[in-house]
Amino acid sequence: MCTLLSRVAVCGGTHGNELSGVYLVRELQKTEKPLEEEDELVSVLVVLSNPRAVQQCRRYTETDLNRCFTHATLNGPESDKTPYEITRSRELNSLLGPKGSPEAVDLICDLHNTTANMGLCLIAYSDHDWICLHIFRYLQRQMPDIPVRYIHFDFPPKEAYSLESVGKHGFAIEIGPQPHGVVRSNIYTTMKAGVQHVMDWVRFFNSGTIFEGGSVEVYTMVKNIDYPRDSETHSITAAIHPQLQDQDFCLLHPNDPLFQTFSGETLRYKGKEPLYPFFINECAYYEKGIALSLARRKFTNGECRAHSPWFHNSKVIQ
Amino acid sequence: MCTLLSRVAVCGGTHGNELSGVYLVRELQKTEKPLEEEDELVSVLVVLSNPRAVQQCRRYTETDLNRCFTHATLNGPESDKTPYEITRSRELNSLLGPKGSPEAVDLICDLHNTTANMGLCLIAYSDHDWICLHIFRYLQRQMPDIPVRYIHFDFPPKEAYSLESVGKHGFAIEIGPQPHGVVRSNIYTTMKAGVQHVMDWVRFFNSGTIFEGGSVEVYTMVKNIDYPRDSETHSITAAIHPQLQDQDFCLLHPNDPLFQTFSGETLRYKGKEPLYPFFINECAYYEKGIALSLARRKFTNGECRAHSPWFHNSKVIQ
């Protein structure tokens, strides 16, 4: 069902203050094998995506790089006033893409951190990309001590705005909680292990291993909820309710506490459908008007096996 | 032993991304009484210290405001190139000081957040200012559910660099863990309660209450420890060890794990004296070369009572 994954990119520092990815990319670059010594079945490109933002330890310098990979932005006009991140997105598109073309790398794994208590999440634009789903399943089994989840952003490819959309396959690995501008050993170590497992899976796949199909749990993003704000100043007037804080992926029911205003009042969830909250109190989303996101959970069915064309020497991993 | 505390300042947003203080100051300003309705024994000034940094949700715009209140910086020359925060420190010195003068406000309480797991700390430049020590003792008793500690920075007044040094008495209230750029309800609520208790104490004191003396525990800062760094790039090469992370105020013994390098090696504490770590993995201190601070603990002795001159109508709080 798929050719080899012969070109894989591991990217970090797409947001310059999400430090696990920044330091992991630097570490991987130190130990990167010269091309001639590389595994013949896969070449791995390790990329620091936004070096200028990393230098300043900020999410971005002029505009959010990880919103620049839409078809429109990648192909828009360029001038002296083009923000650094838009120029950089085009450089990355040349290096790893072009997006949507046969030249694009086979898989992009982009490393992120969140202040939300989300454990390890794979975030992808597809709920039927069997490469991504099999990698997810493999991570879940290899990392039983931490919650591993799959979030699906249901956008068409042209509108997909983030770096991983440049690859033929791709996902973000989002790990938290970790404050931006801080690296915590436990989060760094989890990310390092996660990337190692992804690369192990790629090598197993390329060498002909057959991965059994099965059902996986997918969270599909439904909507975002903003903070209550002052109508004049636009300043927020409440924080996430203490009963909701850190409860990512715990079902939120109608009338559950959602916010606590700064004067102490409880505001409740007015939606009619119970949904799963995630990105609860993510630092970078205050400016985007997102206090939390809500998802619907489903189980993908199907017996689709993942295997490379090399199955003459295959073994089965269930 | 002390006159009335008739002018008190509560400041927040001295660091623009420490959001509990920012939102608490805004909330207090909303409910501030007009001057004519104020308690006749105390006037309270509520100040957003660095509005430009708050606007940008950054610690500072050009230089760290909370390092600008030394005698030298407050009294240095001014030009067109003077950083915003130095100009602002002089405005605040005019409003709340001048530092060291009889016109200075009686008490400054400056609100801060840290990414370190420090609970609530009072940080002051004196270990024998009985106003600060009595307020500390009062907070400890009023807030039994959270750890309340007193940190002493042993600097002479002229070299004291932070905002609270402008008042006749003063301390920072530092509460964590909270990521910068994020407000967490539990931390905000703790800060709000802390400030309320401080103001209660001030009103008790001003109305003649006698506070019994006694011993309190004080952590005096001894030294800072930086991250291991690459000698060429100056980039950090290790994170706080997972066994030390979040263990603020737990005694660090010689040979205890201190850092874990990004390649996985454990580096140990080489000091000879067991000391108490704090500000472990504080976000803003990466750029200052501080991975953690170390303190010696002592118990102040003495039977010094705090009371205002009004003790004709006093009651005793032990």
Automatic annotation (TrEMBL), chains A, B:
User: Residues in domain Succinylglutamate desuccinylase/Aspartoacylase catalytic?
Assistant: 7-200
GO molecular function annotation: aminoacylase activity; hydrolase activity, acting on ester bonds; metal ion binding
Its localization reads:
Apical cell membrane; Cytoplasm
Q: Where is the active site?
A: 174 (proton donor/acceptor)
Q: How is the co-factor bound, per the entry?
A: Binds 1 zinc ion per subunit.
Q: Which InterPro entries match?
A: AspA/AstE_fam, Aspartoacylase, AstE_AspA_cat, Aste_AspA_hybrid_dom
* Cofactors that this protein relies on: Zn(2+)
The secretion signal range is none
Gene3D superfamilies named in the record: 2.20.25.160, Zn peptidases
Task: Give the similarity note.
Answer: Belongs to the AspA/AstE family. Aspartoacylase subfamily.
HAMAP family the UniProt entry points to: Aspartoacylase (MF_00704)
- Official protein name in the record: N-acyl-aromatic-L-amino acid amidohydrolase
Gene for this protein?
ACY3
